[in-house]
Amino acid sequence: VQLQASGGGLVQAGDSLRLSCAASGRTFAIESMGWFRQAPGKEREFVAVISWSGDNTYYEDSVKGRFAISRDNAKNTMYLQMNPLKPEDTAVYYCAASTWSGLSHYIYAYKFWGQGTLVTVSS
Questions:
Q1: What pLDDT digit, counting tens, does each position of 52-62 carry?
Q2: In Å, what is the CA distance from 109 to each residue of 58, 102, 117?
Q3: Which whole-number Å values give the CA distances from 33 to 28, 74, 107, 115, in the listed order?
Q4: How far apart are CA 23 and CA 89, in angstroms?
Q5: How does the average pLDDT of the chain come out, rounded?
């Protein structure tokens, strides 16, 4: 499975961005897809996850009500709509795919990772 993340950029606080993650290859093995982020000097942390069918989602508390994860099954693409953004959302955002059943926020549950896309939010 290959994952290609895109959509990052430099925005101001209060603005919005939509990240995309396109999956290709042996996608039949994927049970869920998630977004993680890593801020400078910090560990990678969970942001949100969605089941492969798109029916179920789970969010980290700090992004609930601001971020929305979704999928386009026809395009094998996952999205993260982020609005409104805050300076503390600044990080490299990674998409990942898991072959485990259920929705997990643990990094070790994800076997496949994209290359990351940088989101910078200025105050």
A1: 999 999 999 99
A2: 15, 10, 21
A3: 12, 15, 12, 14
A4: 24
A5: 96
